[in-house]
C-alpha cells in the first residue's frame, strides 16, 4: 500500500467525525474544549506524517539532497567531488636569447586577466623550468590554478601575464599553449545524482554501460607526478562478436597515442615445458604490427623468428594485443613439438625452448584505461577488471579531424572589426573543441555563436560551406590557427 501523507485539516476532520458519531458531544466550534484537544492531537499527527515523508525522501538517493544525499551514496562507495583547480601548461619567453641556461624556479605566478564572464585567474608553476642558452622560450611547464572552480578553465593564449618580474629576465612574457582543464565547481546534487545513476547502471560487469562508465575520470600520470591525461567520455563500438574498441576522450585534448619500443628483446619464457603454447609479454597493450618473436630450441642451431607483419605469422602464433598473450600453433619442423604418442607435430614448444620478444607498446592514458578494463592480477583491489571473460576490448583514442573555419565579420556601428576577431575566434574554437565522439560540426551553430558575440552585426561563412559529418571513431577539433576570422 503506497504511503499517502495526510495534513492537519484532514486529520482533525476525521477526529471530529469519529467523536461526533460515537459520543453525545456536539460542540466542535473553534475554541471549544473538545475541539482544542482534538487540534492538539491532530497537530502531533501532522508532524509525524511530515517526518515520515521527510524520511522517505531522504532514504532514496533520487530525492535526497545535501548531507542526506551524501549519506545515501556512501552505501555505493561514492563521494561527492569537491571543487578542483584547473591544470595546464605555460611557456615562459624572454625578450631576447639568453646567454646561459636560465632556471625558472617554481612557483612562478601567472594569470589570465578578468573578462566579462569570469574573474582574474591566477595559476602557479608546479615544476622548475629552464630557458636553454641561446633560446628565448622554455619548454611547457605544468601549472595549476590557485583557486578551485570551473571559472579557472581558460582558453589557450589567455594566460598572458606574470604577477611579478622574474629575476634576470626583465620583460619576460608567458602564454598557455593549450586550454587549462579539469577545473570544476563542487559537484551539485543533480550532478552527483546523475553520476550515481551511471555508476549503479554500470555495476554489472561486461555491459556497454560498465565499460563506458567505469573509465570516465581515469587519469594517467608521469613518473614525476604530472597529469598526462584524463578520460572525459568514452564510446564502445563492437567490431565483431567478442571484439570491441573502446574510444576514449582525453580532457587535455592530447590524442596522440604515445608508444615505447623495447631497447632490447625481453625474455618472455626462459624454459618451456613440453607442448607449452602460451607466453605473456610484459607490457600491454601491444602495438600488434611491431611484434617479433625469436624461439631458440635446444639442439637446433638456428633460431625461429616470427614477425607479426609476415602473413605466415598467423600460422604459428596469435597475439591478443590487449593482454599480451601469444598463443603458439604448430611451428616449423625443426622447432615443432611432437606428440610423444604419435610423433606427429602438434601446437606448442619443445621442452627447454626459450622465447624472446621485441615489440612496441602503448603508454599513457590508453595503457591505464586498458589496465582498468582488463584488470591487474597483481592489484585486484584497484584494478578488478570490468570486461566479460572471453571478450577482447581494445582501448584507443579517436581519430582527430581538424576543422578549418573561415569567417567574414560585419561589425555593428561603433564597433571595430579588430576588437571582434579574438572573441569570435575563441567562441568558435570552444564550440568545436567541446564536441564529443562522432558529433558533426553544424555550420548554423557556428554562425549563431559568432552572431551572439556583442558587436557582431553579420557573419559570412567562407569555410566550411555546410555541416561537417564526423564518423563515430572521429572527433572534431580546432587547434590554434584553424579558425580564421576577418
Written description of the protein model:
The N and C termini lie far apart (68 Å). This protein is α+β, with helices and mostly antiparallel strands and 486 residues long. 23% of the residues lie in helices and 27% in strands. It contains 9 helices and 28 strands. The radius of gyration is 33 Å and the shape is extended. The strands form 9 sheets. Strands 7-3-4-6-1-8 form a 6-stranded antiparallel sheet, with no helix packed on it. It has a 4-stranded mixed sheet with strand order 9-10-11-23, sandwiched between helices. Strands 13-21-15-16 form a 4-stranded antiparallel sheet, with no helix packed on it. A hairpin with a 2-residue loop joins strand 10 and strand 11. It folds into 5 domains: 52 residues, no CATH class; 89 residues, no CATH class; 71 residues, no CATH class; 103 residues, Sandwich (Immunoglobulin-like), CATH 2.60.40; 86 residues, no CATH class. Helix 1 packs across helix 2 and helix 8 crosses helix 9.
